[in-house]
Design a protein that fits this description.
single chain, alpha+beta, Beta-Lactamase, four-stranded antiparallel beta sheet, 4 strands, about 10% strand
């Protein structure tokens, strides 16, 4: 029974091959109109153990094509992620503009960061040398000249740029307190130029969620946005 089935399959395969051959004879310009079909063909060249120049060139071109395709896929994925980040930044801007006073602005800021950026923890620390923060927000206040703060974040304040990755233990404990053990990785965002008004820290349990190789362009935009929103209330 098996022998009969195999013979039938060979006969059908031979018939299909003949049909393809007949079609190509009558349509010799097929690959001119459909060049993409050539990339999948395997054409042997009788060169003994050596590889023919044509075959080598085809392999080389296929390799380059595969590399370009992988690169294109990476660029498309990055573009889509940038679109998502831009949308989140837009939603944050909407929330800050709709805030009714500083207390409401802080509530909206923390809520949007948690929901839109999907982080486990958010900590906001504000500098208020002019004493303009209302009593409800005193828990957010920290002295810019605090020796403990300066010792742990001197380089962060000096550069004025967002920081991504795994924080030092002392930095994590200073910012997140008794929740420091739940911090795998974090981002620090200065509020305004060189953290003029404070700092936002967002943390995730995943130690690889935030890393030094991440792009920080959007975080820099967020820094300027937060500085503009909070500066209205904190400037004398």
């Amino acid at each position: 029974m098996s022998s009969t089935r195999n013979q039938k399959e060979r006969q059908e395969g031979g018939s299909s091959e003949q049909e393809v051959a007949d079609y190509l004879r009558t349509h010799p310009d097929l690959f001119i109109h459909r060049p993409e079909l050539l990339t999948g063909l395997r054409v042997p060249h009788d060169c003994g153990p050596a590889v023919s120049l044509i075959e080598y060139q085809v392999r080389l071109l296929r390799g380059r094509n595969d590399a370009l395709k992988r690169k294109l896929d990476e660029l498309i994925a990055a573009a889509r992620e940038n679109d998502r980040i831009t949308d989140r930044l837009f939603h944050l801007a909407e929330a800050l503009l709709a805030a009714d006073g500083l207390v409401n602005l802080m509530e909206r800021l923390e809520r949007v960061l948690r929901q839109e950026f999907r982080v486990d923890q958010v900590v906001v620390r504000l500098f208020d040398p002019a004493g303009r923060l209302p009593e409800e927000l005193h828990s957010y206040t920290i002295d810019r000249e605090d020796p403990s703060l300066q010792a742990r974040f001197a380089s962060f304040f000096a550069t004025g740029r967002p920081l991504c990755g795994r924080l030092q233990d002392a930095q994590t404990r200073f910012l997140f307190g008794d929740k420091a053990e739940r911090v795998g990785s974090a981002v620090l965002i200065p509020i305004g130029p060189h953290a003029r008004y404070g700092v936002v820290a967002a943390a995730d349990r995943n130690p690889d969620r935030f890393h030094p190789g991440m792009g920080t362009v959007m975080l820099q935009h967020m820094s300027r946005l937060l500085g503009a929103a909070l500066g209205r209330y904190l400037e004398p």
